[in-house]
Amino acid sequence: MEILIYAHSGLRWLALTLLLIAIINAFSKKGKSLYEKKDKMINLFTMISLHIQLLLGLILTFNGKIAFKEGWITNNPQMRFLLMEHIPLMLIALVLVTVGRKKAEKAEAPYSKHQLIAKWYLIALILILAAIPWSFRGLNI
Ligand code: HEM
Q: Which one, 82, 95, 108, 128, has least CB within 10 Å?
């Protein structure tokens, strides 16, 4: 299980970097810009990296530290954080990225595609940054 925690922890940097690149790329487009293969790939791989996090996260949820016992949510700050903040916010962010990308793929105009990616991915990034158990938060996770 340790290795999965390392993978889930380390992959955050890949996911965050891709998300940032995708957002900057989308915001940098002007009215006449095209929606090229490169743009499509950045947006796709960003989504995939988050879906890998979901997969690892699900395994950790059911096989890791989380103990589904009576009273756990109120007694244990780590459990409370994971079950009330980390998991729900990450799931919402994942839905935003997936839906945002689908909408962008469906939009006709290249500029609309970029705008959709920029907005949906930015909101997801904010949620993800808020839901990561950063060491400075002293959560001991
Ligand atoms: C989508 C982006 C996600 C990011 C960037 C992320 C990031 C992290 C990080 C940095 C940790 C701390 C790991 C450590 O101990 O060093 C963590 C822990 C954890 N995450 Fe996520 N996570 C994400 C999504 C999810 C999802 C969707 C789930 C569940 C469905 C999940 C479940 C967990 C669990 C259960 C732990 C605690 C692991 C343990 O210590 O047993 N995560 N996550």
A: 108
For the CA of 134, the nearest atom of ligand 1: 10
**Residue extents of the structural domains in the chain:** 2-137
Mutate which of 6, 90, 129 for ligand 1? The one with the most ligand atoms within 8 Å of its CB, which is 90
For residue 61 and ligand 1, the question of a CB distance below 6 A is answered with yes
Å from CA of 15 to ligand 1 middle: 12
pTM above 0.85, yes or no: yes
Q: Which residues contact 29 (CB under 8 A, 6 or more apart)?
A: 110, 111, 114
- Pocket flag, ligand 1, residue 79 (CB < 6 Å): no
Q: How confident is the prediction along the chain (141 residues), in pLDDT tens digits per residue?
A: 789 999 999 999 999 999 999 999 999 999 999 999 999 999 999 999 999 999 999 999 888 666 666 666 667 888 889 989 999 999 999 999 999 999 999 999 999 999 999 999 999 999 999 999 999 999 888
